[in-house]
Amino acid sequence: MSKYKIFVDGAVGTTGLRIHERLNQAEDIELLTLPEELRKDLNARLAKVAEADLTFLCLPDDASKELVANAPKNARICDTSTAHRVNPDWVYGFAELSGQREKIQQAKRVAVPGCHATGYIALVRPLVEKGILPVDYPLSCHSLTGYSGGGKAMIADYENAERADAFNAPRIYGLALKHKHLPEMQALTQMQNPPIFTPVVADFYSGMLVTVPLPISALQAVKSGEEIANLFADYYQNRNLITVHPFQTLPEDGMLAANAYSGKDSLEIFVYGNESQILLAARFDNLGKGASGAAVQCMNIMLGREETSGLEV
User: Fold this and answer.
1) What is the predicted pLDDT for the residue at 12?
2) pLDDT at 1
3) Annotated catalytic residue: which of 78, 115, 141, 298?
4) 298 belongs to the catalytic site
5) Where is the active site (predicted)?
6) What is the value of pTM for the model shown?
7) Is residue 193 part of a domain?
8) Is the per-residue pLDDT at 105 higher than 80?
């Protein structure tokens, strides 16, 4: 059996390691590697890109841009950094958006979505597409993530036995309101402005809960949260990795735990509310649908593999 040749450039970081681990178990994939002394050698890396059927970039933005600028034009590349997510020459790797899977199938360059952005776009984009949410409405977004989203350095800080007491409580970051996911959050929802975005990291390894509050008076042509839940259900029907729950679906304890989807590559959507307000919520794993899972999903689509191959649904 012939195998797909895959190169993971940056396989020592959190996302790269998880992609490498996933693909190492696949019978139809051959992972291309470099010896340690050549791991940062541009020419050696470019040679692997040219040899591979697809390359994952798990690098800082500048390093991704450098490699892409020198890579063969026909090379299939999935970039997990923020470097190309709003670049019009790249396809955004959120397959569940209308028409996006077909674009990914044909693409040579795919930008894997950011974790916070994944939840926000999943909740807002369908409302804009259907004319329910005005594009000039001032949105806000609250997002709670596990500490693995900060990479190796943050993981080490949280797992340090002598860590400071501050690590025991949730911590808000991105206080300058210039989080790196904001450009894609605005561009991919087609909103005129980015949301007021409050990201929070807390003392659990992985998982994510993204929420967007809305007054019903801001919406057009709908009058209830139940109608919104039905709209999501229609929009995401037959999407393998997204589940939309009926309006007001509550866990037994009445609370949404952000780590409930840790270890999964799928995403679930909830809608709550009353006669005047609604709350949209997306729950998933920041390392799954928010990172390596989404990257592998894009690879599967680009190579014509089963979309959920290697994924935990």
Assistant:
1) 82
2) 64
3) 115
4) no
5) 115
6) 0.96
7) yes
8) yes
